[in-house]
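Kindly inspect both lines:
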Amino acid sequence: MKFKAQIMDEAAVERALIRIAHQIIERNGGVDGLCLIGIKTRGVPLAERIAENIRRIEGAKIPVGKLDIRLYRDDLTNIAESPILSETDVSFPVAGKTVVLVDDVIFTCRTARAAMDAVTDLGRPARIQLFALIDRGHSELPIRATYIGKNIPTSTSEIVSVKLTETDGETSVSIYEKTPLIRG
């Protein structure tokens, strides 16, 4: 991969998450019946950060869950013969709640579709909303994020890399160009 540009630094990511917390509160008329579920891996710390921002704004603690969607993917056989599963941890009921699914990047929307399937297996939410820190376009399904940190039009030859302190030791969003394979 060849580095092209840094799109967001730590301060820009934090500003986006504060803005999104306000948008979630406003769109839902407060926080009653609201929960956040982070899609593993980087959606989880993003959901925790948004929940903390909501707590600071509203003084209310919002439940946060962790969702592993690997078994719900429509390309499961392309990933691995026996995928390694990490745990889904949603320790609260989702039935009748407003569930905000949180992910780092939305690209083809297949992860979002898998996450919606996984959530509905846990119960029937009143509504499901979707937050993506980065929407890079190229959706293959009629799905779009309810909340977006930043729209970054990309080509399919580019890679959007989201790094978070909790998982990567730093917070940033960068674009890389895929390097062609050299066959010898």
Notes: The beta strands are 2-8, 34-39, 64-67, 98-106, 127-135, 147-151, 158-163, 172-177. The domain at 11-75+86-155 is CATH 3.40.50.2020 (Rossmann fold). The chain has a mean pLDDT of 92. The chain has five helices and eight strands.
